Amino acid sequence: MTTADYEKCARRIAAALKLASGERILLKLDTRVFAPLVPPLQNLIRASGAHISGVVLAEDTETSSDGELDSLRRLFANADVFIWLPEIRQGNRPALRRAINEWLDEGRGRAVHFHWHGGSYPIGLSELPSQDFIDRIHLAALDINPDELEEQHRRAIALLGSGRVRVTTPEGTDISFEVGNRPFCSQIGDASRARMESARTRIDRDIELPAGVLRVAPIEVSANGSVFLQVWRPLASQGRNLMLHFIKGHVAVQGVNADKIDQELSAAGRDARMFREFALGFNPALQVLPEAPFIAYYGYGAGVVRLSLGDNEEMGGANRGGGVYWNFIHNATVTVDDRVLVREGKLQLP
Questions:
Q1: Most confident residue range from 143-147, 258-262, 289-293
Q2: How are the residues of the chain apportioned to helix, strand and coil, as percentages rounded to the nearest 5?
Q3: Mean pLDDT, rounded, of the chain
C-alpha cells in the first residue's frame, strides 16, 4: 500500500458519507494497522466542516462492563457518524457491540465499515494469495459505481421476490427457500444522510466498503434441502466434506467432524441451527479469479453466494442469538422458478 492508495481509501470513505458541516464523527481504529489512512481521512473530515468527536481503540478482548457500556452509550449519543477502520482482529467487545446496535436502531446515526484485513477466505483447501494481491483487488473494488450497483440490485430483487429461490452446485448443494416480504439490504456504498431515509433494517445504516452485496433473511422455515461444504470454517470446528441438511430451516450436519460442529452449535444455543441469510455478490473486481481462487471481502464478488446460519435480527429476520455462521459458495447456480440469476458462479441478470 502506497501513500496514494491510502489517500484513495480516505476519499472513498468521505464520498460515501457526504459529510455535512457540523457533523460529529466517531472513529474506531487499530493503531497497529492502516495508520497512514488516518491523516488523509482527518483532512477530508475537516474539509467538509465535520469534526472527530471521539476515538475508540480496538481491543482483542471479549471483556466489558456495565460502566463501559454507559460510557460508550454517551459517546455514541454525541455522534452522527461511526467509521470502523481496519483491525488485526475485526470485531467488537460486547459493550461496544451493544452500544453500536442501539445507536443504529434509534435511526439517527450511520456507519461505514472499512474492514480491509477481514473477509478473505480460502476456497476449499487452497491457500490465500498474498496480502499485496488482496490489497490490489480491494483497491479496484472501491471504484464500482453505486448507481450501477443499485440498478443491478433492483432487477435482482424483483426476480428473487417473485417465486421460490433455488441454489444448486455440482457437488450436491440443492436448497430452496422463499423471500416473502422480507426487506433486502442493497449495499451499494452510499452512506449519505439521504440514503438513510430509505433504511428499513439495521444493516441499511451499516455501509460496507468495498460495496456490492445484496442481502436478505428469507422466511427461515421455508428453507429445505442440502448445502455441501468442502470445509467448515465459521468458528472453532474444522469440518470436511460436510452436508448440511435443512428441514423447515433447521439444520443437521453430516460429514468429517460433524460431531464437533454439532457441539459448537449446541453450545451457541438459541437459533444457531436455523437458516439465516441469502447473500449475493455483484462487485466485478471481487469475483473469484481462476488464477487465484479465493473469496474476497465477505463474498461481495460478482456471482458469489453466501448461505449462513444463526441470528439475523440485523436484517429483519426472526432468528435470535446463537451467533452467526457464514458459508460461501463460488460456483452456485441460482434460479427462481425457471429463470436463472446465477449460472455456475456467473451473474446472469435478466
A1: 143-147
A2: 30, 30, 40
A3: 94
State the greatest distance between any 2 C-alpha atoms of the chain, in Å, as a whole number: 57
Find the length of the chain: 350
Nearest to 200 by CA among 176, 181, 183, 220: 183
- Residues 6 or more apart whose Cβ sits within 8 Å of residue 16: 112, 189, 190, 191, 192, 207, 209
CA distance 209 to 16: 9
Q: Which of helix, strand or coil describes residue 283? A: strand
Write out the three cell numbers for 288. 473469484
Of the candidates 213, 214, 182, 212, the residue with the CA atom closest to the CA atom of residue 200 = 182
Residues 200 and 315 sit within 8 Å (Cβ to Cβ): no
Asked if pLDDT for residue 234 goes beyond 60, the answer is no
Supply 128's cell numbers. 490465500
Q: Is the distance from CB of 304 to CB of 233 less than 8 angstroms?
A: no
Contacts 24+ apart (CB under 8 A), 102-108: 102/73, 102/76, 103/73, 103/76, 103/77, 103/79, 104/202, 104/205, 104/206, 105/202, 107/199, 107/205, 108/80
- Distances in whole angstroms, Cα of residue 338 to Cα of each of 89, 162, 164, 220, 334: 43, 11, 10, 22, 10
Q: What is the DSSP letter of 301?
A: B
Identify the three-state secondary structure at position 94: helix
For residue 76, the enclosing domain spans 3-118
- 217 lies in some domain: yes
User: Same domain for 238 and 92?
Assistant: no
Pairing of strands 214-216, 275-280: antiparallel
Same-domain check for residues 20 and 65? yes
Q: What percent of the chain has pLDDT above 70?
A: 98
Same structural domain, 12 and 98 = yes
The domain tally of the chain equals 2
Domain contains 269: yes
